[in-house]
Amino acid sequence: MKRILTFGLLGMGLFMALSAAKQPNLPNALAQDSLRIPAGVDPNDENWKGIDLTPKDPIKPLSIEEEAKRFQLPPGYKIQAVLTEPAIQQPGEIVFDGNGRMYVLELRSYMLDADSKNELEPISRISRWEDKNNDGVYETGTTFVDNLIFPRFVLPYGKDAILTMESDADNIYKYTDTNGDGKSDKKELFTTKYGRSGNVEHQQAFLFYGMDNWLYSTVNAFRIRETPNGIIREKTGANRAQWGITQDDNGKLWFQGGASGVPSYFQFPIQYGNYDVPNELAKGFEVPWGAAVKIADMQGGMDEIRQPDGSLNRVTGSAGNDIYRGDRLPTSLRGQLFYGEPVARIVRQINPVVKEGLTTLHNVFQDQKSEFLKSTDPLFRPVDMATAPDGTMYIVDMYHGIIQEGQWTPKDSYLRLKIDQYRLDKVVGLGRIWRITYDGQERDKKQARMYDEKSATLVNYLNHPNGWWQDMAQQVLVLRKDKSVVPALKQMALTGSTINGRIHALWTLEGLGALTAPTVQKMVVDANPRIRIQALKASETLYKAGDKSFAATYQKSMLDKDPEVAMQAIFSAKFVKAPDLETQVKASLAKHPTGGVKLVGEQTITPPKPRQNGPFNGTELSKDQKEILARGELVFAELCSQCHGNDGMGKSMGNNKLLAPALAGSFRIQSHPEYAVRVLLHGLDGAVEGKNYAGGMMQPMKEQSDQWISDVVSYIRNGLSNDASFVTPQQVAAIRAKTSNQKAMYKFESLMSQVPQEFPTDASWKFAASNTVSTRVGGNASPRSATNYEGWSTGITQAKDMWYQIEFPQSFKLSEFHFTSNTTFKRPSKPTPGVAPTMIPTYPRLMHLETSIDGINWSTHVANWKGKEGDNVVSFDPVKTKFVRLKLGEGLTKEADEIPWSMRQVKIYGLK
């Protein structure tokens, strides 16, 4: 189960800003026959030294056979193509389903020219391929989902079904082939509030099915999981990743950075939050040792180029990753981390060295000044890799001219000059997938058919020597929900013949909802420390469901002789908020005063301050927000949990009957806050979405204060697998006043007709603006400006009568306009070496909201409204309209001088 690459990746956005002063001031519109230092530039200028601007022959694609000759591998290793163009184009990810079929994410709109034009056209696809004659080549394929807008990932999710989402979108959808023709014909909403908008480099990617049965992605600091009552969500640490997720035999996730060029978070399981660990990378780790590619097309300029061979001298981007867990390559590779560096044209092998529970990463071939795989072909672009069902490792080669998104290839830049010099923008529409083999070790020719086999057979695969078979057998069993195998799984978990099989049996039980305390307690005292660790992790599910007896288990395990077991006990106790944590951690520190226990223990008692390393980290809550959540949690625990359950999943009454609806992971709770506020004020009676509950009704609580209701609603929207905005007492007061005539409890259908609903965007919405050359529609209605900032921007100083407009395909009854204001770079006209551009907030300083039926005659509904940094909500009385427009008004203050107006994540609410 693997990942996707969303490119631009190698652009090093923040680095670009910080090193802008190092770039030469290149001439505009350089022609191929005039690539030379422009007149008036001193040839001795340091910025120009060593830059070869003489005309060159265009870089042209090699045949499959010729490219294979350009690869350099350690002795004994071989490489062969298994699927290539024209069958596929511009692959970004591969992943295998339970029947061994290979899904390919084809990013067909990626960098078709140097300006990334039409990057969000719906021309990408997910194809599915089979090797029916078992000769090692995937010859039979179908287009499983077509006409996608730069999809973010593909994850097989049951027989003939996948999960995916598009760029600038907020929703994950499940696509299913119901008639067996290899093409999806059913599309279902899986979950929402999952995405973000803006540059494709900065969006979430790589949906990954973890051993713990949760789904994880890059960027997002949360995980999700499907339950009988819907999708639930839990917050995690910030993974700081962009371009890869993989897992090891213990189910620990390894996240891959993008612009950093190195792994991002891998030290401990991400669900336990962030810990600062010094010296995670061995000395020299950030130096790549690619082959001589000569063309020196590195975005960072000459400072990033090793002379005279033109190769990369410092990692600048990474793409895809895999902990190799197969059985048909040398055993020395098992548990090693592999990832791609497409700018350097290498695949790197990493040896994770663990000492006292802390991991340090070492480049296996650093002493030889080499890498596991490299190529002299400038078009080799390794962007993903995977342990395959046949026990080998596959490499995804986009085989592309440009490997940086258009934001990082502007005219006048060093990289753009190199692109023009070698005509790299002409190499598009290709792509190759390769298999790595080793002399004397034939690939496994047994073809997977898990969707067609009995559950008892799948249990046996949990012992398979190839980790892919273990992972997929567990996933298929859990999604199949077949509890007939529970006895066999219990026996395997307790007495199985392999450690990996026992671990997977434990987590399969957990995924089936069949895990019991006696089984876990036996495994907590197992002779093998890996089993003890996994039992502690699995016990968290039971603790959260109400079995608080495990608090004593955590206390005892913190004193385990194995430091990694003690560390896990601290993690688990902290995660479930077991009592008296600090005292117990101090006792563990006394027994293990060094290494990982020392680091984890001390940072558990005194957490480090959150890092702020770019746009991929979660936002730290303010003191006031923490106090709101604490008050709301107390009320929920004392009152609401009696019906809705401790975890918000609804208290079970047996026979699949709940006392009250689940609140965790609820679309209704996470949508407009007015829904929850109205329910608390006036109550709710009867069925909800056609489903009856044993409790029958939610009693009104309008006698409570506005602060009390805002605290409870804020906690429910943020603390129970939900991720939504806080609610203020002022908002509650406004809703209370608006609904003062409501005397009886609501009925669900009547309530929903009165609560503002989000109008999801589609391609029929038309965007326009006074100061934008082009705009785009995404799932978040996020337009894109010619300046290539995330979202939309005027690009110039705010001025009276600037406007931003949306035209709908039909009239809607609108009542709210939501958007998030950007913070962006203020770029000086004359950059100063070593001085980074300052950051400025770009919210609208003074604004009107207007509507129109015909786009000619406009009515003002909100006048002289002042924006703010971050989330903005413009509310007005419901009005039927076909056009809505934000327009800057008179009286702009000096504060707006030299500040553009920009927005992202625009959402429209109204009554349906």
Residue windows where pLDDT falls under 50 for at least 5 positions: 1-36, 611-618, 773-790
Question: Nearest-angstrom radius of gyration?
Answer: 28 Å
The residue-averaged pLDDT reads: 86
Structural shape: globular
Q: Tally of extended strands? A: 39
Q: Please, what is the oligomeric state?
A: single chain
Number of helices: 19
Q: Helical content, roughly?
A: 10-25%
Structural classification? alpha+beta
First-last Cα distance: 39 Å
Could you tell me the strand content as a percent range?
Answer: 15-25%
Biggest sheet, open or closed, and with what strands and sense?
8 strands, antiparallel
Number of folding domains?
4
Helix and strand arrangement:
Layout (H helix, E strand, L loop, with lengths): L12 H6 L45 H7 E2 L4 E8 L6 E6 L5 E5 L17 E7 L9 E9 L6 E2 L4 E4 L7 E5 L9 E6 L16 E2 L5 E2 L5 E6 L2 E6 L8 E4 L5 E4 L48 E2 L4 E2 L6 E5 L13 E5 L4 E10 L2 E6 L9 E3 L6 E6 L5 E5 L16 H9 L9 E7 L16 H7 L5 H14 L5 H10 L3 H13 L5 H8 L4 H16 L5 H8 L5 H14 L4 H11 L3 H11 L17 H22 L22 H4 L3 H9 L1 E2 L11 E2 L7 H14 L9 H10 L7 E2 H7 L2 E2 L7 E4 L22 E2 L9 E19 L1 E4 L11 E4 L5 E6 L6 E7 L5 E18 L13 E10 L1
Parallel strand pairs: 27-29
Antiparallel strand pairs: 1-23, 2-26, 3-4, 4-5, 5-6, 7-8, 8-9, 9-10, 11-12, 13-14, 15-16, 17-18, 19-20, 20-21, 21-22, 21-23, 24-25, 25-26, 27-28, 30-39, 31-33, 32-39, 33-38, 33-39, 34-35, 36-37, 36-38
Helix pairs in contact: 4-5, 5-7, 6-7, 7-9, 8-9, 9-10, 9-11, 10-11, 11-13, 12-13, 14-17, 17-18
